[in-house]
Amino acid sequence: MGDTSRLCSVWLGSETGILKGVSLARKQAFNFCNTSHLSRDQEVRALCWGDPAESELLVGSVDGTVKTFSVEKGAFTETRRCGDPADGCFVGLASLSGSALVTCAECGTLRVWREDGGGSEPAAELDAGKNVCRMRQSPVHPHKVATGGKENGLKIWDLEKPEKPVFAAKNLRDDWLDLRRPQWVRDMAFIPDSDKVVTCTGYHQVHVFDPSTPQRRPVLEVEYGEYPLTALSLPAGGNAVVVGNTHGQIAMLDLRKGLVRGALKGLAGGVRALQCHPSQPLVASCGLDRFLRIHSLEDRKPQHKVYLKGGAGATGGAQEVKEEDDDDDLWETMERVEETPKRKPTEEDEGIEEEELQKKSKKKRKKGKD
C-alpha cells in the first residue's frame, strides 16, 4: 500500500474510521484501515500532519485514540491513548517538536502529550472552557493555539505559559434593543505575517481579532448569508478567507474591505471541512453530500469532483472513483430491457369487444327503466 499512498494528494477521514486518500491525477480514492471491524466509535474527527516533511499523518478518533499513519509505508504505525471518550470528541489536533501532541476535546480540556514523559499522563493540561467547537495551531508559532465554541469566545493560549490565555476576546456590543448578542465560534485561523486571528460563527458572522492592540472586540465584522458558518480556510496571501455554511454555500471574503469577492457553486450539502492550498489558488471542500471538490479561487470554477463511497465493509482495498458526468460504464452494466411489440387486434377480438359493449348498454337500459 506504500505505492498507492504516495500517489494521494488529498486525505480525508470518514465516519466509520476509514482514512481515505484521493489521487486527483488518477481519479482514484484508496481506503486505509487497520481493523477488520468498522464502527462509529472509530469515527475520524481530527487530522493533522505529524512532521514538517508531511510523511506522517495523525488521525484522531472518537474513542480517544490518536493513530499515526505513515504515508511512505501506507499503513498505521502507532496508536496512542490521548484522552477519555467521556470528555467528548476531538475538536483539534496538533503536533509539536519531536513526538509531542496537542489534543483538545469538546469539554474544553486541552492536553500536551510527550512520548518521553513516561506513563499515560499528559505533560501539561489546561481548561479552555465548556462547549469548545474548534482548536487551531498557529503555523508560525507552534506553541500558540486558539480555541472557541458555543458561549465560549476566542482564546489564544501559549503552551509554554498555560496558566492563563494570552488573549481573550470580548463579546460584541449589545444590539439596538440592549440585548446581549450570543457567541458561537465554529472555526478560526491565524492570519500569516500578523498577529490577527479570523473566526467564523454559527450566526453567519466573520470576525477578525487583533491581539496586538488593546481592543478585545473584533476589528472587522462581516456577515455572510443567513445560515450558520461551519468551516473556514485562508488562501495563499492572507488577504481573504474562504468560508462555508450548513447549506453548502462557499464564498471568498475580502479581509481588508469586508466584501464578498465571489461564491463557489456546485455543493449540495452542508460543508464539513475546507482546506486551501498553501501556495496555489485552490481550495478543497467536502460535506454531507460525500463529494470531494477542488475549486479554483481565480475563476471560481470546479477543477475536480470525486464521489467518496461509504465503504462500511471495505478494509483497505483500492476503490475506483469516477466523475459524476462519466456514466458510460454504469449504463453498460445495467440490464437491458426490451419492449414487447403490441399485438394487432384480430377480427375475433373486435367481435368480442362489440358483444361486451352491447351487454353493457343493455344493463344501463334496465337500470334506467327500474
Automatic annotation (TrEMBL):
CDD domains: WDR74. Keywords: Methylation, Nucleus, Phosphoprotein, Repeat, WD repeat. Residues 333-346 have a biased composition (Basic and acidic residues). Signal peptide: none annotated. Pfam families: WD40. One of its GO terms (cellular component) is preribosome, large subunit precursor. GO terms for biological process: ribosomal large subunit biogenesis; RNA metabolic process. Residues 308-370 are annotated as: Disordered. Residues 322-332, 347-356 have a biased composition (Acidic residues). Residues 360-370 have a biased composition (Basic residues). SMART domains: WD40. It is found in: Nucleus, Nucleolus. Isoform 1 interacts (through WDR repeats) with NVL; the interaction is independent of RNA or pre-60S ribosome particles. Isoform 2 does not interact with NVL. Interacts with MTREX; the interaction dissociation in a late stage of rRNA synthesis is required for appropriate maturation of pre-60S particles and depends on the ATPase activity of NVL. This is WD repeat-containing protein 74. It comes from Sander lucioperca (Pike-perch).
